[in-house]
């Protein structure tokens, strides 16, 4: 509830309206639909992070990159993994430098003078100069516009999620020795998740939610046309329709949008003009990565060969 | 607007979505940022703020359509407004017959069936969204036989309309015509000739038919909302969330939705087991790594390093009842087993009715779950005498033939309703297994209230197993996984 309090001044409408989001993302080659545009627009207007969830390869990370380039902002990325901790996500004291500082203090006073007071050293070694910024703190302290991407947040343990909460709801980081660091300008924050586990309620409550599923035929065709140079509209249509056919099958891992693009590129390189069953079967390994899936799909497609 | 929002949130909560106060406030704030007359943006804004899980999107959609479909409501634009350029050509709003009685509602039939035919051809043959919306509207007017005050729900009118439309027959005729058409025919969507192209065209036609079906439903829903108000219609439209669907009575469609949730759940189960294993034993001190590490801090070993512990391999033995009384549940359990066995190498699966057979290899070899289930049904030797479940005999044979392979690392999971058709429950046989195993869990798809009634022999097993858990839906399964301590 307090998410927007005190931070309103930090951001002033980076987008005019959702249509503006669509247009500007389109300029950098990212085709947004209404859902994506509304979520990005609201994230900006309400000053809230967006949790982007969906299967792998549907353009979640790409969305963050495109937003950053549209806004002329620096992309700060925190790649999550199991075992990620405070020292890697928020900040860390540079203890090597601190040790050096203490030793310097000792050698200075080797002549017999009373050593510099401990409190003085302590104050010194817990100052900014000895602080190593990690992505979250970096994003909070940035004075230039930034987009913070917390990638694959479902990889960290539930307990570690708590690390993110303060940053996500209040855009601040508390450092016991220094006090609280408040964001000067609210960064646009995106979290991505592959939906491998349920995220905690506390995290979800602080975020807007965007589900990125597989796109419709029309949208995917537009994506292919935008991403694959030199592809014929007709080939793009066929490619996308075959991929949709495969997505309707019982496969272990359905082909993602990025794999559709790879496949379209492959076909263009091979000089294919029309996708027939035989071409599709012979290049299936670009689309599908499990042997069982390839076998299954080949069998189905071979049945449709002329 | 705030009233509509409050009602809408109340409906979402009724339907089981966990919408918090924070989220409601967010939604209210979001509504202040988007133009309210744009239905797509309105939907987007509410979805982004109120729904936090992809499994809940469908419930949200239904509720949204009910609350924001009314011609009087704030989202007054027709169903075609989502499509670009549809706004200007959208058909006239339905004449909401206030005092005119039922006859007036049926009045605008005038254009009649020939026009509907043309519209349907445009909708299905060309995929024209405007034509599709108009066709839906006209079809409902012609065939639904809508009457005010009739105590029937959406499905009744939907059935009547779709039955009269005969979409399946129309699709079949269309795809046949397309199949014969030359490759450069417009109806082929630029798809190449041949079976693959035909199939792709068929898929597209099916998608268009689905769109039309959705529009017909939206149309009927709009009529009902006008008549009865959003709240009343929403109540009849409420469907259980996928996590609350009872395994025993799941429809085919619900099974498909459940399966999508099941896969992450089995991953969670796997992760949980793996995590506990790693945390369980700390490795010994790695002296060399500690010293090497200490060099960077001036020789002071600040951070001791440990060797990674070698995890013990957990073994899971699943015993699944496949008898008729739990047929749907059994199908579901096979899905679960398939999901689990794709995560663990050491899963052994046994299925039983009155005989018992190992089917682990069928699961390992079959490429898809469907083929695995078909093969289990065809190949597993599970019927010993009469095909009625006999737990006693099944456990007896298991204890005798495979009992020795159960070790202190093995977790045994029994899936079944413990209805043994008045045969000997054979609890002592299961006890033999339980004594060797690390854990024995029993997931029972029956409501707890029915346990011990009739031929249910739950009492006999309770002292033998570590826990017997009611497992009627995904939520309960999830609870079980959460509490699981391997």
Low-confidence stretches of chain A: 1-10
Low-confidence stretches of chain B: 70-110
What is the oligomer described by this structure? heterodimer
The greatest inter-chain interface is formed by: A-B, 62 and 55 residues
What best-fitting shape of chain A do the alpha-carbon axes yield?
elongated
Q: What is the CATH C-level name of the largest domain in chain A?
A: Alpha Beta
What is the averaged pLDDT score of chain B?
Answer: 76
Instruction: Report the principal-axis shape of chain B.
Output: globular
The CATH architecture name of the largest domain in chain B reads 3-Layer(aba) Sandwich
> Which strand order do you get reading across the main beta sheet of chain B?
3-2-1-4-5-6
CATH architecture classification of the largest domain in chain A:
3-Layer(aba) Sandwich
Arithmetic mean of pLDDT of chain A: 85
Distance between the termini of chain A: 61 Å
> How many discrete domains of chain B?
3
- How many structural domains can be distinguished in the coordinates of chain A? 3
Order of helices and strands of chain B: HHHHHHHHHHHHHHEHEEHHHEHEHEH
Describe it.
The complex is a heterodimer of chains A (about 300) and B (about 475). Chain A folds into three domains: about 10-85 and about 135-210, P-loop containing nucleotide triphosphate hydrolases (Rossmann fold, 3-Layer(aba) Sandwich); about 90-130; about 215-300. In chain A, about 50% of the residues lie in helices and about 15% in strands. Chain A has 15 helices and nine strands. In chain A, the strands form three sheets. In chain A, strands 2-5-8-1-9 form a five-stranded parallel β-sheet, sandwiched between helices. In chain A, strands 3-4 form a two-stranded antiparallel ribbon. A two-stranded antiparallel sheet of chain A has the order 6-7. In chain A, helix 1 (about 20-25) packs across helix 2, helix 10 (about 215-225) packs across helix 11 (about 235-245) and helix 10 (about 215-225) crosses helix 12. Chain B is built from 21 helices and six strands. Chain B folds into three domains: about 70-180 and about 205-240, no CATH class; about 250-280 and about 315-485, Rossmann fold (3-Layer(aba) Sandwich), CATH 3.40.50; about 285-310, no CATH class.
């Amino acid at each position: 509830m307090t998410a927007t309090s005190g931070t309103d001044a930090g951001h002033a409408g980076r987008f005019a309206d959702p249509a503006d989001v669509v247009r500007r993302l389109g300029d950098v080659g990212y085709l947004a639909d209404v859902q994506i545009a509304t979520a990005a627009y609201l994230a900006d207007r309400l000053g809230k992070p967006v949790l982007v969830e969906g299967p792998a390869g549907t353009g979640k990370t790409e969305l963050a990159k495109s937003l950053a380039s549209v806004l002329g902002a620096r992309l700060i990325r925190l790649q999550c993994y199991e075992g990620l901790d405070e020292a890697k996500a928020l900040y860390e004291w540079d203890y090597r430098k601190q040790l050096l500082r203490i030793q310097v203090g000792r050698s200075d006073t080797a002549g017999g003078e009373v050593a510099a007071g401990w409190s003085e050293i302590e104050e010194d070694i817990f100052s900014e100069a000895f602080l190593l910024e990690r992505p979250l703190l970096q994003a909070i302290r940035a004075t230039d516009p930034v987009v913070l991407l917390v990638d694959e947040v479902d990889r960290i343990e539930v307990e570690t999620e708590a690390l993110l909460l303060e940053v996500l709801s209040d855009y601040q980081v508390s450092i016991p020795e220094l006090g609280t660091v408040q964001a000067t300008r609210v960064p646009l924050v995106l979290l991505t998740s592959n939906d491998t586990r349920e995220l905690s309620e506390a995290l979800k409550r602080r975020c807007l939610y965007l589900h990125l599923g597989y796109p419709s035929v029309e949208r995917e065709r537009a994506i292919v046309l935008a991403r694959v140079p030199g592809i014929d509209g007709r080939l793009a249509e066929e490619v996308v329709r075959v991929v949709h056919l495969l997505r309707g099958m019982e496969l272990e891992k359905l082909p993602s949008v990025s794999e559709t693009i790879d496949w379209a590129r492959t076909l263009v390189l091979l000089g294919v003009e029309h996708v027939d069953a035989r071409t599709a079967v012979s290049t299936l390994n670009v689309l599908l990565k499990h042997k069982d899936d390839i076998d299954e799909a080949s069998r189905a497609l071979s049945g449709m060969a002329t | 607007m705030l009233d509509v929002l409050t009602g809408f949130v109340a409906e979402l909560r009724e339907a089981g979505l966990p919408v918090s106060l924070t989220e409601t406030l967010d939604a209210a704030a979001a509504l202040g940022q988007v133009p309210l007359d744009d239905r797509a943006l309105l939907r987007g804004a509410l979805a982004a703020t109120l729904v936090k899980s992809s499994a809940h999107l469908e419930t949200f959609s239904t509720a949204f359509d009910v609350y924001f479909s009314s011609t009087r409501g704030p989202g007054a634009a027709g169903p075609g407004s989502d499509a670009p350029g549809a706004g200007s050509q959208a058909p006239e709003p339905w004449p909401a017959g206030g005092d005119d009685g039922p006859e007036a509602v049926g009045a605008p039939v005038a254009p009649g069936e020939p026009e509907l035919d043309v519209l349907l051809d445009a909708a299905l043959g060309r995929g024209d969204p405007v034509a599709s919306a108009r066709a839906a509207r006209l079809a409902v007017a012609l065939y639904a036989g809508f009457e005010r005050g009739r105590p029937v729900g959406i499905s009744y009118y939907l059935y009547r309309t779709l039955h009269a439309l005969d979409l399946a027959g129309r699709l079949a005729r269309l795809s046949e015509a397309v199949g014969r058409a030359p490759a450069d025919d417009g109806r082929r969507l630029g798809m190449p000739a041949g079976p693959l192209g035909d199939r792709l065209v068929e898929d597209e036609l099916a998608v268009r038919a689905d769109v039309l079906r959705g529009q017909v439903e939206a149309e009927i829903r709009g009529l009902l909302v006008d008549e009865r108000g959003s709240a009343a219609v929403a109540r009849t439209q409420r469907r259980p969330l996928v996590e609350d669907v009872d395994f025993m009575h799941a429809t085919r469609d619900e099974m498909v939705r459940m399966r999508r949730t099941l896969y992450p759940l089995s991953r969670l189960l796997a992760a949980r087991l793996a995590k506990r294993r790693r945390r369980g034993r700390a490795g010994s001190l790695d002296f060399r790594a500690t010293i090497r590490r200490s060099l960077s801090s001036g020789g002071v070993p600040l951070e001791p390093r440990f060797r990674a512990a070698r995890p013990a391999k957990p073994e899971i033995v699943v015993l699944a009842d496949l008898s008729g009384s739990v047929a749907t549940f059994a199908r579901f359990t096979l899905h679960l087993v398939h999901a689990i066995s794709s995560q663990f190498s050491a899963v052994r699966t046994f299925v039983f009715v009155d005989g018992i057979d190992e089917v682990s290899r069928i699961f390992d070899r079959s490429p898809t779950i469907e083929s695995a289930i078909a093969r289990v049904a065809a190949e597993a030797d599970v019927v010993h005498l009469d095909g009625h479940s006999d737990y006693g005999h099944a456990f007896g044979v298991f204890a005798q033939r495979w009992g020795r392979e159960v070790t202190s690392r093995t977790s045994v999971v029994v899936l079944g309703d413990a209805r043994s058709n008045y045969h000997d429950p054979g609890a002592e046989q299961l006890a033999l297994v339980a004594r060797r195993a690390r854990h024995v869990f029993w997931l029972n798809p029956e409501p707890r209230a029915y346990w011990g009634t009739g031929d249910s022999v739950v009492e006999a097993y309770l002292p033998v197993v570590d826990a017997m858990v009611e497992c009627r839906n995904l939520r309960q399964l999830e609870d079980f996984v959460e509490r699981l301590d391997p």
